[in-house]
Amino acid sequence: MVVTEETRMRGGRSLAEALEDDLAQWSARTGIAVETWALPEGDVPPRTSRAVLLVFHEALSNVQRHSGAGTVSIAVTMSSSGLRMTISDDGVGFDPPVTGRGITAMRTAFAELGGSLTVTTAFGAGTTVTGAVPA
Ligand SMILES: Nc1ncnc2c1ncn2[C@@H]1O[C@H](COP(=O)(O)OP(=O)(O)O)[C@@H](O)[C@H]1O
Ligand SMILES: [Mg+2]
Asked: Residues lining ligand 1, CB < 6 A?
């Protein structure tokens, strides 16, 4: 993995390293398994990294508080078109369009970067948070 100095975050970590650490700690604390399908290779702009970490924080807090999930699957990829991420749980789901402060904050974090974020869910079908930020 090639990560230049400018895109490292506080503590000298890349976004991928920060996510790996945070996910391992969260899984140990909650007992919910994490399946990591992809983490970004190479450089991610610092503002995008901060938005992704904010979204992960809120999405994982929702998984822990509301979902009853046993497993959460995550993928974060960076390409020439930008960053894409998915956080998917196998929990109870809910009946959209429920929206509280957390979901609004996640949407705002990506919208501020010209991106978008969608929550897909249904009772009994788990919940998936999908987002993209253009390069
Ligand atoms: N992963 C999830 N599994 C089940 N329900 C969820 C999940 N994420 C969100 N919800 C539902 O959507 C509501 C709104 O979420 P949010 O905006 O984060 O507000 P809050 O977490 O403060 O209630 C939650 O109260 C919950 O009912
Ligand atoms: Mg919440």
From this structure: 62-63, 65-67, 89, 91-94, 98-103, 127
